[in-house]
Amino acid sequence: MQSHNKCSVCSEDSFGKHYGINTCMGCKSFFIRSTKRTVTYSKCPFNQNCYSTVVSHYKCRECRFKKCLEVGMNMENKQITGWEIWKELESPHTQINSLLRILSHVDLKIEKLRASTFNPIIYPGLQEMISDSSKSYLGKTFEPMPGWPLTKSKTVEMNKKLNERRVDIEVRKEFQVEQSEFIDSKEFNVKEWIIFDSLMVIEYAKTFPFFYKLLERDKCVLIRETHYMISLITSNFQSYLNKKDALQTPDGFFYDGNLTTGQVARFSLGPVMAYVLTTKANMRPTKTDLEMVMAADLPDDIPLATLGFLTMEPYSRNKFTKEEYLMMKAFTFCNPVDNLSPFGKQIVQKEQQKYAIIILNHCLTIRNDPSRFITIIEHVNFLSRSQKKYKDFITFMKTVAKSRASNSRRELEDQLFSY
């Protein structure tokens, strides 16, 4: 018998009742796509036996849709989600606790996926990643990544080899040579965090019901405008919890606040990045910067602590709690940017106002400190400024330096940073 806390389709954790049945957000969105679009799914490769105990976690779309109908999902039934239950509650304290339970559950699933062996070989385009079904449940399916934490030199060496392998795989795919879908963790136990965490932001976005109400264009716009801020606050807070002085990635590599530009260059992050980010932090770099770096010796003693967003100082100074981090992250994602359509902007603005009220109630009723609200909002503005610096640097590097990254990574970076 199916537990009321489990999805009736895939047995993952349920996020409330959708179309008459307890389901997760992934199966809910799959059912919506399957019923609202005219699609004919290809024949099941397992003889319509996907849901037997013999088959792995993979379920073909034909069997998945059939399962949705078998358990009783119906477009005519009103849906009640866990995200919407809190609206019915009167007590601000109860509202906060109810919403935090949902946000904490989502964050735990994303963190499990970040720390797992889930590591796609080829990244699809932004639109395809958004339209694809949710992968947040895979954190339970894939094992934890072995061998972490790694040393700095090992991380750089492995990333270089991994990139070369991705380029080789892309060539093989052009000749239709069969390839695995995921990186073998026994051979490469590293991830390209800038791109991988962008994928995690998309998975995070799919847990918000309002995201499915947006136009396809607005979904892409919202991801572009928030993905780096969400990635940054996620990595920063995890680093703060681990009592690090600077940003740390899950594989153990961290940007030591005492690291200098010369050391960065030797770790293959590039003398141009080291020079531009440490000396041009408040202005847009130009091609002259590159020419000057190539023509002169690079200063070897500029500390990376000058890159304010790489340090944990704001977190240790403000002592952000896990609850504040979760609410701040959701508030940051619900960003009604100007590039959204009027329809999309109205939806996102309503969501941001909801989280602003929740944060304010938290500051008033739990922290008993109204000024705390200003502190949290100021930190969100800090994240926005950090994203702008990084966007300027990416634009600069694309115009003056030839990328050695794989085609799929370059194309995804183009889509993510095409503001």
UniProtKB/TrEMBL annotation:
<keyword id="KW-0805">Transcription regulation</keyword>
<keyword id="KW-0539">Nucleus</keyword>
<dbReference type="InterPro" id="IPR000536">
    <property type="entry name" value="Nucl_hrmn_rcpt_lig-bd"/>
</dbReference>
<dbReference type="GO" id="GO:0005634">
    <property type="term" value="C:nucleus"/>
</dbReference>
<comment type="similarity">
    <text>Belongs to the nuclear hormone receptor family.</text>
</comment>
<keyword id="KW-0238">DNA-binding</keyword>
<feature type="domain" description="NR LBD">
    <location>
        <begin position="158"/>
        <end position="416"/>
    </location>
</feature>
<dbReference type="GO" id="GO:0008270">
    <property type="term" value="F:zinc ion binding"/>
</dbReference>
<dbReference type="InterPro" id="IPR013088">
    <property type="entry name" value="Znf_NHR/GATA"/>
</dbReference>
<protein>
    <recommendedName>
        <fullName>Nuclear receptor domain-containing protein</fullName>
    </recommendedName>
</protein>
<dbReference type="GO" id="GO:0043565">
    <property type="term" value="F:sequence-specific DNA binding"/>
</dbReference>
<feature type="domain" description="Nuclear receptor">
    <location>
        <begin position="4"/>
        <end position="80"/>
    </location>
</feature>
<keyword id="KW-0862">Zinc</keyword>
<dbReference type="InterPro" id="IPR035500">
    <property type="entry name" value="NHR-like_dom_sf"/>
</dbReference>
<keyword id="KW-0479">Metal-binding</keyword>
<keyword id="KW-0863">Zinc-finger</keyword>
<keyword id="KW-0804">Transcription</keyword>
<dbReference type="Pfam" id="PF00104">
    <property type="entry name" value="Hormone_recep"/>
</dbReference>
<dbReference type="Pfam" id="PF00105">
    <property type="entry name" value="zf-C4"/>
</dbReference>
<dbReference type="GO" id="GO:0003700">
    <property type="term" value="F:DNA-binding transcription factor activity"/>
</dbReference>
<dbReference type="InterPro" id="IPR001628">
    <property type="entry name" value="Znf_hrmn_rcpt"/>
</dbReference>
<keyword id="KW-0675">Receptor</keyword>
